[in-house]
What does this fold into?
Amino acid sequence: MAEKETKIEYNSSVEKILSLSEKIKNGEQIALAKAITLIENEPELIFHVEAHWNEVLKTRTSHIVGFTGSPGAGKSTLTDAYVAKLRVQNRKVGIIAVDPSSPFTGGALLGDRIRMKRHFTDDNVFIRSMGSRGNVGGLNDAVFGVITLYKLYGFDYIIIETVGAGQSEIDIAYVADSVVLVLSPAAGDEIQLMKAGIMEIADVFVINKSDMEGAHVLKTNLEMVLQFSESSKPIILTVATSGKGIEELYIEIEKHKDRLHGSGEINERLKRRIKKHAETLVLKKISKVLSTENIDESLMVYDLIDRVIDNLCEVYNADLKSKEV
It folds into this structure.
């Protein structure tokens, strides 16, 4: 009986998300906000939207820009300044600001939208705060679905600002087309440069708050690290509060965007995003089943794991025997 009720509720959710998606395609932001809430609670619903609007989504060319880096580097202020530049170019912008989650509600705790308040009355800018919900990679699992909804709406640029989790915050590389790593002097970022993972994910480096002491030292250190790794990536000095360097940042992101499309790498990044989306949902589903109190379901999972291990052992042993021969 409970299973039947769950199926009815899910079918109702499918009907609701498809109804909202029709309105989203027609540019209704209220429908977009409601659909995001549904996707946050039931991320798998987005597959129904993708199947229903597959041909429309293929025509969307939204460029996804991720802003990541250490807490306190000024990501929100920099994002706000970059969005202002995009609006001067008459681009429609959808923003996903991932904040630390409230330990009580699971929702966004800090609300970085406050730093973007000048865009609140702009109909061509949509800002959504999402709680990280404990994800150490700096993103919320529902972010993939929200990107699809933003594309369906027709945003020219989708901006994702991550929660600021330091060197563990590398999931943005699986999501964004262009990744901007924001650093700042006197914030310990000299040490961050040497940590595994954080350097490889960036397409553009920004040293924000460059009017502070130590900015040029940080730039020199960063150039040395890039030279050592035989990597050539732009480094931009900005002061987001005054607008210094924002024009250069805009130009470098546009150059990277053109390179991605010119080389065809944009398609590879799309495939990587789809793969990561599927992986995220599968792992979440497995975790949910493993944590269930239903003994029968747990036994089924453990039986499946045992069979997988047995099969792997058979393959491994067969491989060893073939090498001995």
